[in-house]
Amino acid sequence: MKRTLGLLSAVAVAAMLGLSGASEAADKTIKVAGFGVKSGVLRSFGINTEAVMNAAIEHINTAGGVKLADGTMAMMEMTFDDDRCNAEEGISVIRRIASSDAVIAVGPTCSNVAEPLFGVLQGKVDDASDSGLQMPIFTDTAIKGGLAKISEWAFRNVPNENEMYRTLYKWVRKEHPELKTIFGGVEEDFAHSRFTWYKVMDTRAKEAGFEVVGFSKWLLADTNFTTQVREMKKAKADIVSMSSHAFTLCGMLKEMKRQRVKPKLIIGLTSSSTTETMQGCSAAAEGIIIPTSYAPVTDAAKLASDMATKHGGSTDLHSAAAWEILHILKDVIETSGVEGKPDTVQADRRRIRDGLASRPTTPGLLGTIKREADGEATKPYLYVTAKDGEWVVLHNPL
Amino acid sequence: MIFGFEPIEYLQALVDGLLFGSTYAIIAIGFTLIFGVMDKLNLAYAASAIAGAYASWGVLEYVPLPVFITYFISAIAAGFFGYIVYICNFRFIPARNQLATLLATVGMLLFIDEVIVHATSGVPQSYPALFDDVYIEFGELFGLRGDLLFIFGLSIIATAILVYILFKTPLGMATRAVAQQPVAAQLCGMGVQKTNATTFIIAGCIGGVAGAMIGASIGMLSPLLTLPITVKGLIAAVIGGLGSVPGAIIGGLIVGGVENFFLLTRGVTERDMYVMLLLFIFLAFRPGGIFNTSAHRD
After folding, report:
1. Phi, psi of A278 (to 5 degrees)
2. Same domain, yes or no, for A284 and A358?
């Protein structure tokens, strides 16, 4: 009897200890700080990123959360700040995040925020002479090329446009050998659009053997595109290649339709392969070809899309990157010895940074993502085209 | 060729600019009407005009309507927004406090802008146009957009209606009387507040037409529209002479023409510099604008 009672007591104590351990695990959290633009005309970018981050966190937490160095499980938690696509605001947000207990920041949306913001991070790890912030940042949207090399604390999961347009123009050359000339267009006051036209599209088109016969410029808030389309009409190019976001892309496409400018092919900017373009001008955009690092063609991508919709957002090449980032982080946290304690926040940040830097590849929604030494990524991509008000896959170049 | 362009290209740029300038003209009329009556600027005017267009788009999302009815709803909604702006920014702020009303309207402009952004997540929305498939070509280098011609025509009609209201109706007489001598008008039994409110509603309705026409001319609505339209409309009103309806029309057409001419010759990055330069020239040498003959320099 005594033995039985002792056994029962031991079981009860063990159960209580177990329960208290479980409760401790459930209480443990790993905090991720998201930030991006949630006001102004680019608000939809922030809304989508936040929704996708929430969806990814729900997906991870439902499966048990993340495993910490001591073997306990922790739930992922996130905050999301609005940087208003403004550099000063972005720097202020990252300083605030750095003083919190978040182990990593995910963002920003705009390249004009990312560039100065990466500049306030420590340039080289362990450089005692550099008092910059030691906070890992993993970027989902800001796409202007080559920014991650500014700091060893900066990582990006954005598509490599150079590679995408290099192969796209080559593919077009091969598929349509009769097309020889290109007329370009650029949203002159938007960092990403400018970079992509001047450093990517123009160069890669020429490399592929096309003759660039000219290009027009317009501004993000322009409302009248008659002169630009007349320039385009005058050039009589086979292909029109436009580096602009949804609003002005739609303005240009509608004006082209009015003036009956019908190039044999239209190529668009990665960032315009979104629902915004479809909502703004689906009929005028019919047939446009855009390279993108996201399309709901795999089971994982479909799941991400469904869960994002549930959280009030939509997946596109930018927001879907946030899903990938959070799943990459789960893997990094579980394999880098992250402790998740209040007194190990800075050490955990360093572990996550080192974990990210040491990965040659990471999983992605369309396949394996290659991590570059400078913190950039080379992501799998597809060519999509607008058809009957939807984006459909035209070709898989990989 | 003159400086790299055919003469016909200059003509085309000017004509395009003049036609598009008619939208600036309608916005400028709104600015000038309110300034004429109250001697105050309503910087939220263009924002409420675009808000009117958004309201009509919102109705269109639920009820399929003919395009003309959509534009009509835009006018009615913008008239309502104009009244709200009056109540919030003018009605209860002392008339002598010019700066307070000016800043209040700036606040209202930003508020309306942000409401639109939150309602649509900043996503551009397709807006119906009339005659957008009509393009009248004269040879290879000259053509006229059917929709811009329609907008031009509608602007003239809107202006004609306004002029009729101002000069042929008791309401117009009251408006002009309050504009010229508010105290005397009140002594004659005209309600100053009522007249002011009516002016805001009428100006709002005209703005709603402008908002719808701007949306139609681009084929889309976006919160990006409010600020440039405010700036261009205001410049047009100042150049034409604040308080003068014909001045607002001429000012709008001049701004549109100059803008497009320099877009062709100097490019998009310099275009607005020349429009601003034009404004500075007027402010320096003819501060009362084209139609304000009483203006003089200190």
Report:
1. -65, -40
2. no
Q: Which domains does chain B have, with CATH numbers?
A: 7-285 (1.10.3470)
**Burial of residue B183 (number of CB atoms within 10 Å: 0-12, 13-18, 19+):** exposed
ipTM of the complex: 0.83
Q: Please indicate, yes or no, if residue A14 is contained in any of the structural domains.
A: no
- Sheet of A377-378: strand order equals A361-363, A368-371, A377-378
Based on the structure, what is the number of domains in chain A? 2
Burial classification of residue A14, based on how many CB atoms lie within 10 Å of its CB (0-12 exposed, 13-18 middle, 19 or more buried): exposed
Q: Do B135 and A44 touch (CB under 8 A)?
A: no
Q: Does the beta-carbon distance from A221 to B225 stay under 8 Å? A: yes
**Is the Cβ pair A219, B268 closer than 8 Å?**
yes
State pLDDT tens for residues A314-369. Answer: 999 999 999 999 999 999 999 999 999 999 999 999 999 999 999 999 999 999 99
- Inside any domain, residue A10: no
Same domain, A183 and A260: yes
Radius of gyration of chain A (CA): 24
Supply B227's token pair: 């600020």
Provide the mean pLDDT of chain A: 91
Q: Determine the pLDDT at residue B188.
A: 87
**Pick from A43, A44, A221: CB nearest B228:** A221
Quote the minimal CA–CA distance from B224 to chain A in Å: 5
Q: How far is B3 from chain A (nearest CA, A)?
A: 16
Q: What is the pLDDT of residues A144-167, one digit of tens each?
A: 888 999 999 999 999 999 999 999
For the record, the structure tokens of B218 come out as: 């681009």
Mean pLDDT of A209-225: 93
pLDDT of residue A12: 53
* One domain, residues A90 and A172: no
Query: Are A140 and A33 in a shared domain?
Result: yes
A90 plus A188 within the same structural domain: no
- A41 and A138 in a single domain? The answer is yes
pLDDT of residue A335: 95
Q: How far is A85 from chain B (nearest CA, A)?
A: 13
Measured between CA atoms, the residue of chain B closest to residue A282 is B126
Domain boundary among A238, A257, A292: A292
- Residue B136 has phi, psi (to 5 degrees) of -95, 115
> What does the alpha-carbon distance between residue B21 and residue B26 come to, in Å, rounded to a whole number?
9
| Cα–Cα dist B21/A48, whole Å | 37
Beta strands in A164-238 (DSSP E): 181-187, 211-218
The low-confidence residues of chain B, meaning pLDDT below 70, are: 293-298
**Domain span holding position A357:** 28-158+297-378
Q: Are A213 and A177 in contact (CB under 8 A)?
A: no
Tokens 């597809």 found at:
A382
Interface of B with A (CB under 8 A): 9, 12-13, 16, 20, 114, 117-118, 121-126, 132-133, 135, 141, 143, 145, 147, 214, 217-220, 222-225, 227-229, 259-260, 263-264, 267-269
CATH code where residue A242 lies: 3.40.50.2300
Q: Is the pLDDT of residue A21 over 50?
A: no
Residue A50 has pLDDT above 70, yes or no: yes
Residue A19: pLDDT above 80?
A: no
